[in-house]
Write a structure and sequence with these properties.
about 300 residues, mainly alpha
Length: about 300
């Protein structure tokens, strides 16, 4: 049952990290704002892995080329998802961007079934649907959601971000199964460090090549960027632990509590105005999480 507290902590860290990263976004480009997540998060991931190895008296199991390939794929999917989420913020506010991205729960249920053979109870599937409906109400901001709204830039970027995060979870799950270890938390932490190293190399190379003027800003904003890296590493460690120890779709469904936490950070940290429809939307998100948990436990 370690996946449950890990998922709640992951949602907390992710909502917190995204709020801080939104402030960094005002000073950096999309790619540079994404880079700080991995560049400053990698040392934290290494410390977490070394600390766990020391605590358990364990060693890193053999790493296969296929494991590395899966981790690189997970890292690339997360980079794409993060960049699309930051782009969504440019079209609408922090809450709306996150809300559309949280359709990853229903995307995850479908893709995990098709690619991993994971199945869920009808109650859990119903909870996912209720939660996504709540997310859409929050995203609509009290307005009637029309079909045309689903093809506006913020929605498309958010939906694309959700797909990127869904594929990240699937690749991480496959990587944890590939690693020759019965210790799923160790597998999650090894995957975390490999993924972060690959992300730092991939996005760092792109920024150095195409946006070289952003590199000094990445280091100049180290105080805020360091917070982003710390929260990102802690959140990813918790997400990866959840993916390694429970069905991907169930973890994503419970992770919808992030929307509730997102609104809290939006109000008290970013000082964004409250919008109509948030209360009923949040109630549906909460009900969806309860139904998903009831059906999955």
């Amino acid at each position: 049952m370690i996946w449950l507290p890990a998922t709640f902590l992951a949602a907390l860290f992710q909502a917190w990290r995204t709020a801080v990263q939104q402030r960094v976004r005002a000073e950096l480009s999309v790619n540079a704002a994404g880079l700080v997540r991995y560049l400053y998060g990698l040392p934290v991931g290494i410390v977490l892995l070394l600390g766990y190895l020391g605590w358990r008296g364990a060693t890193i199991p053999p790493i296969s080329p296929y494991f590395l390939m899966l981790c690189v794929a997970a890292g690339l999917a997360q980079i794409i998802g993060t960049n699309l989420l930051l782009l969504a913020f440019g079209y609408r506010n922090y809450v709306a961007g996150t809300a559309f991205a949280k359709t990853e729960a229903i995307q995850g249920a479908l893709l995990a079934f098709l690619l991993l053979g994971e199945t869920l109870s009808w109650l859990t599937l119903g909870g996912i649907a209720v939660g996504v409906a709540g997310v859409m109400i929050v995203a609509a901001g009290g307005q009637r959601l029309r079909l045309s709204d689903m093809v506006q830039p913020a929605a498309l970027c958010g939906l694309g971000a959700g797909l990127g995060f869904t594929m990240t979870s699937i690749f991480v799950k496959a990587a944890s199964l590939e690693l020759a270890s019965a210790d799923k938390m160790l597998a999650a932490l090894v995957a975390l460090v490999v993924v972060q190293a690959g992300q730092t190399l991939m996005q760092g190379s792109y920024v150095a090549w195409r946006e070289r003027e952003q590199l000094p800003r990445v280091f100049a904003t180290w105080r805020t960027s360091g917070q982003v890296g710390l929260l990102a590493a802690l959140g990813s460690a918790c997400w990866f632990t959840g993916f390694a120890t429970a069905p991907v779709a169930l973890v994503r469904a419970v992770g919808q509590v992030e929307v509730i936490l997102t609104l809290g950070f939006s109000r008290f940290y970013l000082r964004e105005a409250r919008k109509p429809g948030e209360v009923p939307g949040l109630l549906l998100v909460g009900l969806g999480v309860v139904l998903a948990l009831t059906g999955g436990l």
